[in-house]
Design goal:
The chain is an alpha/beta fold. Helices cover about 30% and strands about 25% of the residues. Strand 11, helix 8 and strand 12 form a beta-alpha-beta unit. Helix 4 packs across helix 5 and helix 4 crosses helix 11. The longest helix is centred in the last third of the chain and has 17 residues. It starts with a strand and ends with a strand.
């Protein structure tokens, strides 16, 4: 066999219209590289926004999407000591994973713990690593402290709640549906706020005290992000890692968070961004290795439980694309590579 199946976006555009299944040559690993026979890859909303040209980078087209994967090494290049054919691995910061074979630098692959499922391993970086970095490296949330988070029912939100239980910090969880309140509390969330029928800033003061909270993370943006910034205590910190409220917007004027200058100036608050892709390309190797190792250990121990993905054969990629953005779609859609 000399060709493999690849899911290719021919041009910039709506994923359902520009993605095609193609036969392409199987790549060969060079020095310091390994070839991986891919087992499963997640389909993230960020993958789809990259194809639309609404993400932090725009690839050259045609392009193979995908930012993480789990698979088995099937060929080694020279200078790849410590890795072996048949070893199950995940890729780190490797793009173009929506295909049967991927070539990666040896330093960009990590062995999968023996007891970890392919579903968990395939999803290990984008969401679990983000939750670990945000609560640890970025905000250093300590036992007993409050952390305010939006989109608490999302995968990252659920993992942050689990980290709160593990580390013993308190989570104040913002959701937009009343039915989600019971869910986040059942997961171990300390308290919940429903923006459908509650005022976010008033409820933060009721729950955490008049001054508000010192630390917060937001992946919604828009007015919700602005309300979170105003709910911060003086000297408080807000890290913004997503903008769900803008995902269907094309008007540049609406891709904003209307933050109050007075609130920032007179209460000396800090609002900053976090993007995992930039973190993976700019973080010193020792810090990156420590954060990834901690994430793997937390997942392997059961302290972090990644929701089980929904396997979908590669040929049915249209369903995976739809489910990646469908409300209450269940588990993360996982493209699986089986013949």
């Amino acid at each position: 066999m000399t060709t493999m199946r690849s899911l290719v976006a021919d041009t910039l555009g709506e994923p359902s219209e520009v993605l095609r299944l193609r036969d392409r040559p199987i790549p060969e690993p060079g020095p310091g590289e390994v070839r991986i026979k891919v087992v499963a890859v997640p389909v993230h909303a960020s993958d789809l926004h990259t194809i639309r040209g609404r993400y932090g980078f725009t690839p050259e087209f045609p392009t193979v999407p995908g930012i993480e994967s789990v698979g088995v090494i099937d060929e080694l290049g020279s200078g790849t000591a410590g890795l072996s054919v048949g070893q199950r691995v995940i890729t780190i910061g490797v793009t173009g994973t929506w295909q049967e074979y991927v070539v990666a630098e040896a330093r960009r692959v990590l062995p999968v713990p023996a007891g970890m499922s392919d579903s968990t391993a395939a999803q290990m970086l984008a969401n679990p690593l983000t939750a670990v970095i945000l609560t640890g490296d970025e905000l250093d949330v300590r036992p007993g402290e409050w952390l305010l988070q939006t989109a608490a029912g999302s995968t990252v939100g659920q993992l942050v709640i689990q980290l709160g239980v593990h580390v013993d910090f308190k989570t104040l969880n913002v959701v937009r549906r009343r039915s989600a309140v019971e869910d986040v509390l059942a997961m171990g969330g300390t308290a919940a706020i429903c923006t459908a029928d509650e005022d976010l800033r008033e409820r933060v003061a009721d729950i955490a005290g008049h001054d508000g909270v010192a630390k917060a993370i937001d992946c919604v943006g828009g007015q919700v992000g602005a309300d979170v910034s105003r709910a911060l205590a003086p000297h408080g910190e807000l890290v913004i890692y997503g903008a769900l409220s803008t995902h269907r917007q094309t008007d540049p004027g609406k891709l904003t968070i209307p933050i109050s200058a007075r609130s920032l100036i007179y209460e000396t608050k800090t609002v900053r961004g976090f993007w995992l892709f930039r973190w993976l390309t700019e973080t010193p190797k020792d810090r990156m290795a420590a954060a990834i190792d901690r994430t793997l250990r937390l997942a392997d121990s059961g302290a972090l439980r990644v929701p089980e993905g929904r396997p979908i054969p590669l040929e049915m990629f249209s369903e995976a694309v739809y489910l990646a953005e469908a409300p209450e779609h269940g588990g993360k859609p996982l493209l699986v590579f089986e013949r």
